[in-house]
Amino acid sequence: MAKKSDKNSIIEICPIRNVVARFGNKWALLVIMILSENGSTRFNRLGKIIPDISTKMLAGTLHTLEADGLVRRTVFPEVPIRVEYELTPTGQSLVPIIHQLTDWALQNMKSITEHRKKFEAGGI
After folding, report:
1. Cα 106 vs. chain centroid, distance in angstroms?
2. Most exposed among 3, 47, 72, 100, judged by the fewest C-beta atoms under 10 Å?
3. Three-state DSSP class for residue 48
């Protein structure tokens, strides 16, 4: 019998699910857009721009984006140590797509909201 680790799940081999799942969380797209607008930004500054994100969640989000090559982390050998984050070219290439998705959401938000209300009321 084959081990579970020997089989690739559809999630692992599907490029859309594999990639989008990594930056499709609550904070990743927001961090990408902030870095796009602000350029190289220090960790604490990011936390101030997004006041409702915890330090742990921000660190984890940046770590994931860095692991995927969307964000570059630069450590400056200063006292105290300064760490800045910026988008890589791959991360920058995602920004126009996020803008398109935002435009689509704005154009369709009213209709989607109306459908949700009907669905919750049992009308669909």
Report:
1. 19
2. 3
3. helix
C-alpha span between 101 and 104 (Å, rounded): 5
- Round to whole Å and give the CA distance between 15 and 34: 25
pLDDT digits (tens, 9 = 90+) for 85-115: 999 999 999 999 999 988 999 999 999 999 9
| Widest Cα–Cα separation across the chain | 62
For residues 89 and 70, give the distance between their C-alpha atoms in angstroms, rounded to a whole number. 7
Can you tell me which residue has the tokens 């909201």? 113
Residue 65 in tokens: 């984006």
Report the DSSP beta bridge partners of residue 41. Answer: 85
Q: What is the pTM of this model?
A: 0.78
CB 85 within 8 A of CB 72: yes
Cα distance between residue 38 and residue 22, in whole Å: 22
One-letter amino acid identity for 71?
Answer: V
